[in-house]
Design a protein that fits this description.
heterodimer; A: PX Domain; Substrate Binding Domain Of Dnak, Chain:A, Domain 2; 3-stranded antiparallel beta sheet; about 10% strand; B: about 425 residues; mainly alpha; PX Domain; about 5% strand; elongated; disordered N terminus
Chain lengths: ~425, ~425
């Protein structure tokens, strides 16, 4: 069953995608139906559930699982809407999937997961991971993540991703069988080491700089936004106090009483309206947060490019030093001061046989080195090509998404203003009748 | 000296509340006739023919009274014949002191004034002088409050534009209230204040009231026997009202504080969009647009906050002082009644002598009733003023908030096309 399933995916991922279509996908990269995997199946994270169990060190822990539902698009369009396939996943499994994608597709700006812990919160918003609002926002975020991967021209075809959606039990083993973990470890080590590229690619350097700036500005924006939300909340809620005092005051008035009383109700309504407003604004904040994390993904790609470039440069340097050694050995001259030169002076010349053997060894090493440089060159070129394509795709997606986010933010502000005008008009009518 | 004419016309209206409301509000004539008689005992007879018809006509028509009450806003405006404004504050610096004077302009058709128009300059202490004079010469009346003299030093700059403007508004309100009062507006000190080139502040110093004497009767916690329920109710009302105003004042202050802090965040929030826009290509304009929009909203918010702290709070505080003035009048009334009750008791103790009630006690009774009538009239006038003032104040607050939201709305609505434009164009080329 599992086998035939994995057969299927390979087919799903690759068929029907003519080059022109995939080209189209590169351009039209928004999370929409009609792109790659989403053409075949509907994906949703339908609900979240709290569970309790034992963790690795046998400690009792509470965690949240999310229900992933998939159903073939064809069936849905025919109106038969069968029971969707569904399975439960934990956040940590999403993380595992993303890590796998990061290692396997180093040239892709991998869609980020929603935040692990609530950040940039204002006081009314709970930072508790078990908070229902937080869980709900994360559910939406996880669904968005799946849709983004499913609509990505490269990632959508991944076998492991398909299994993530369809195979609850066997999936984890399959991921580890890919051996990505080992690769991840060595990559991580290499990435953490400090290295300096001699000839950095200007485009990637700029893109990395852009990622830095984007991350800095969006996090600042989110910080100030959270503080402003706190203040706005205060402004509205304090108006609610008018509601009470007007009502009390109305009790000692005759002609003014009715007007005051009803104006008080409008003040109550005004104070209550901020809850919905800020809840909506939180959605905007989540959209910004996605790009805050996207900035990190973008920087990761640039960093991996640097590493690839560095590996190429190291190979080239290695080769040229081998070549230099060969030259020295062949001509017997030592251009620069070296240990070898010293030893030869101290212990006399090597025998011709020895030299011959050394030369031979160097010869093979140079051959290997040349092969290596060639490979690295190809690797680097491919990386640049793939990465740049994906970065272009990402840029377009980003411009589109953020523009949409700004529009919905503006619309939200407009509706808030309209609500404000309405409430104050109502109150004014009451006041003018006093 | 006011015991001659007025008390004779008042007793008949003494216990009937409808008439009492009617009396002060009814017409300028009755008011006009009464004030001279306080000042000029010689003319007291005039009050009789004018006062009596009102008294006899009123008991029948409580409905006509209602009509009058409803109409009185308009009536006031139509019959007003004394217009006073305070404007043009000027700073004077001398070696001795620095102070502000305000121009007081008067337009009137009243014959008590020699000229139809006056323009004089007065400083705060002149206003203060006037208020003391009014309080002394019209002890039975509610004298509107002046803005507080002492402001916390260091916290408020006494010569700042905002402070002077707030004070000017309060002084203007004070004079207008006096000018609209059917009795106070005929006070000679008021006349002098409005018209005299130089205020002779010594003038009228001798005119000390008899009311002052009755203070001694209330010392030692004398308890009134027969304080009419309505006055007790007034006191209770004022206490409650003070409390509510205090709460409203605190709420308004907190809102201003929250708004000010919100404004500070917005001032930081807008520019972040701007710095973001600096390194985006396609998003440059939209982000710049949002930044501008937030900045517009900040300005609108700043205006709202300023309006609230300069127009809303001072009026609230003035009303707290107004209530204090009213409480003072109530206290004075109690004192006058206390004097009467003490004297009456003394007489009752020697009841057996069967002598007629001494005129002294009768005079006292007259004075109590006169005071009651004046107070009730002022109370109703005050209630009416208060209703109008708060209607205006709260409607104004609603208006300011509406304006604020309308400005923000306009800013965000004008942003939408800017956000959409390029996208549509792109959609077409795709």
């Amino acid at each position: 069953m599992a086998d035939s399933g994995s057969e299927d995916i390979a087919v799903i991922g690759n068929t029907d995608l003519t080059p022109s279509e995939s080209q189209n996908n590169l351009k039209n990269t928004m999370v929409e139906k009609g792109t790659s995997l989403l053409k075949k199946m509907e994906i949703s994270v339908a609900e979240a559930e709290k569970r309790t169990g034992k963790n690795a060190v046998n400690m009792q822990e509470t965690y949240t699982v999310y229900l992933i539902e998939t159903r073939p698009v064809d069936a849905a369009s025919e109106g038969t809407s069968p029971v969707p396939d569904s399975l439960w996943r934990r956040y940590s499994e999403f993380e595992l999937l993303r890590n796998y994608l990061l290692v396997t597709y180093p040239f892709v700006v991998v869609p980020p997961l929603p935040e692990k812990r609530a950040e940039f919160v204002w006081h009314k918003l709970s930072a508790d991971n078990m908070d229902p609002d937080f869980v709900e926002r994360r559910r939406v975020g996880l669904e968005n993540f799946l849709l983004r991967v499913a609509s990505h021209p490269v990632l959508a075809r991944d076998n492991i991703f398909y299994l993530f959606l369809t195979e609850e039990k066997a999936w984890k083993e399959t991921v580890f069988e890919t051996g990505f973990q080992a690769k991840a470890d060595s990559r991580l080590k290499a990435l953490n080491a400090t290295f300096r590229v001699k000839n950095p690619d200007k485009r990637f350097a700029e893109m990395k700089h852009y990622g830095d700036e984007l991350q800095a500005v969006v996090s600042q924006l989110l910080r100030v936004r959270a503080r402003a939300a706190d203040r706005l909340y205060g402004v509205y809620k304090v108006h609610g106090n008018y509601g009470r005092v007007f009502s009390e005051w109305s009790a000692i008035e005759k002609e003014m009483g009715d007007g005051l009383q009803s104006a008080g109700h409008h003040m109550d309504a005004y104070a209550a309206s901020i809850d919905d407003i800020l809840e909506e604004e939180e959605h905007y904040a989540d959209q910004l947060k996605e790009y805050l994390f996207y900035a990190d993904a973008l920087r990761a790609v640039c960093r991996k490019h640097e590493l690839t470039q560095y590996e190429l440069e190291t190979a080239v340097q290695d080769l040229s030093s081998k070549k230099q050694q060969r030259e020295e050995l062949a001509t017997g001259t030592v251009r620069t001061f070296s240990l070898k030169g010293m030893t030869s002076k101290l212990f006399g010349q090597e025998t011709p046989e020895q030299r011959e053997a050394k030369l031979k060894m160097l010869e093979t090493q140079i051959e290997e080195g040349e092969e290596m440089v060639k490979d690295r060159n190809v690797e680097c070129e491919e990386f640049v090509k793939g990465a740049w394509t994906d970065i272009e795709r990402f840029k377009e997606q980003k411009d589109h998404d953020l523009r949409e986010a700004l529009i919905s933010y503006a619309i939200m502000q407009i509706s808030m203003c309209k609500k404000g005008i309405q409430v104050w008009n109502n109150a004014k009518e009451c006041f003018s009748k006093m | 000296m006011s015991n001659g004419g007025t008390p004779r016309s008042l007793p008949s209206s003494g216990q009937k509340s409808i008439q009492e409301i009617c009396h002060p509000l009814s017409a300028e004539e009755s008011a006009r006739s009464r004030s001279p008689d306080v000042l000029n005992p010689g003319e007291k007879d005039l009050s009789l023919p004018n006062g009596t018809p009102v008294d006899t006509s009123s008991p029948a028509s409580s409905s006509s009274l209602l009509n009058r009450l409803q109409l009185d806003d308009d009536l006031d405006a139509e019959t007003r014949d004394l217009f006073v404004t305070v404007d043009d504050p000027k700073k004077h610096v001398s070696t001795m002191e620095t102070y502000i004077t305000y121009r007081v302009c008067t337009k009137t058709t009243r014959t008590e004034f020699d000229l139809p128009e006056y323009s004089v300059r007065r400083r705060y202490q002149d206003f203060d002088w006037l208020r003391i004079k009014l309080e002394d010469s019209q002890p039975t009346h509610l004298i509107p409050p002046l803005p507080e003299k002492f402001v916390m030093k260091g916290v408020v700059d006494r010569f700042s534009e905002e402070f002077v403007e707030t004070r000017r508004k309060a002084l203007d309100k004070f004079l207008k209230r006096v000018a609209d009062h059917p009795v106070l507006s005929f006070n000679e000190h008021f006349n002098a204040f409005l018209s005299a080139k130089d205020l002779n502040k010594r003038q009228g110093l001798a005119l000390l009231t008899k009311m002052g004497e009755s203070v001694k009767y209330v010392t030692g916690g004398y308890k009134l026997r027969g304080r009419p329920v309505e006055f007790a109710a007034m006191g209770e009302y004022l206490d409650m009202f003070t409390q509510k105003l205090g709460t409203i004042d605190r709420i308004a202050q907190r809102i201003i504080k929250e708004q000010t802090e919100f404004l500070m965040e917005l001032r930081e929030y807008g520019p972040v969009y701007s710095s973001w826009s600096s390194f985006e290509e396609d998003l440059h304009e939209p982000l710049e647009g949002v930044s501008g929009c937030v900045s517009n909203c900040s300005s609108a918010l700043e205006e709202l906050t300023e309006d609230m702290s300069e127009d809303f709070l001072p009026v609230l505080r003035e009303y707290v002082l107004y209530i204090e003035s009213m409480k003072n009048v109530l206290k004075k009334r109690d004192q006058v009644q206390a004097e009467y009750e003490t004297k009456l008791e003394a007489v009752v103790f020697r009841e057996d002598k069967k002598t007629p009630m001494p005129t002294d006690v009768e005079k006292c009774q007259d004075r109590v009733e006169c005071f009651n009538a004046d107070l009730k009239a002022d109370w109703d006038r005050w209630q009416n003023n208060k209703r109008q003032d708060f209607r205006q104040l709260l409607t104004g607050m609603a208006d300011k908030n509406i304006q604020y939201y309308e400005k923000c709305l306009a800013a965000w609505e004008s942003l939408i096309p800017l956000l959409q434009d390029k996208q549509d164009a792109k959609g077409e080329t795709n």
